[in-house]
Amino acid sequence: MSEVTMEAPPMPTEEALEIFKGMIFGKQSFERFSKNEREAISRAINLLEKQIPKDPVVVRDGWWLKMKCPACGRVIEYGIKLTKNYCRDCGQALKVGD
Ligand SMILES: [Zn+2]
After folding, report:
1. Structure confidence at residue 2 (pLDDT)
2. Which of 21, 26, 35, 53 gives a 20 to 30 Å CA spacing to 62?
3. Are 67 and 56 contacting, i.e. CB atoms less than 8 angstroms apart?
4. Same domain, 57 and 97
């Protein structure tokens, strides 16, 4: 008889983020973690947040439409349709239009 193995689905990025935020923003954060540990956790939070795709900020510039990164504000592309799925400057994941 073969054993049925239930493989856990990969943890969604949002869930990992909530766990890290709970660690660092929790009541006992200052007792539980050193300054360096809190620094490491907050860096991980920043990186994970950039993995969640966000809509670009669309700005009109005369006849043109500019697509700006919602994280760093850099212009990613001109036009009405975003084709790049991340910001080359800061690594923010972007929602690509279809
Ligand atoms: Zn950016």
Report:
1. 61
2. 53
3. yes
4. yes
Distance (Å) from CA 87 to ligand 1 centroid: 5
- The one-character DSSP state at 77 is E
Instruction: State in Å: Cα 50 to ligand 1 middle.
Output: 9
73 CA distance to ligand 1 centroid (A)? 6
How many domains in the chain? 2
Can you give the pTM of this predicted structure?
0.73
Q: Does residue 7 or residue 75 have the better pLDDT? A: 75
Q: Which domain holds residue 30?
A: 13-51
pLDDT of residue 14: 94
37 CA from centroid of ligand 1 (Å)? 26
20 inside domain: yes
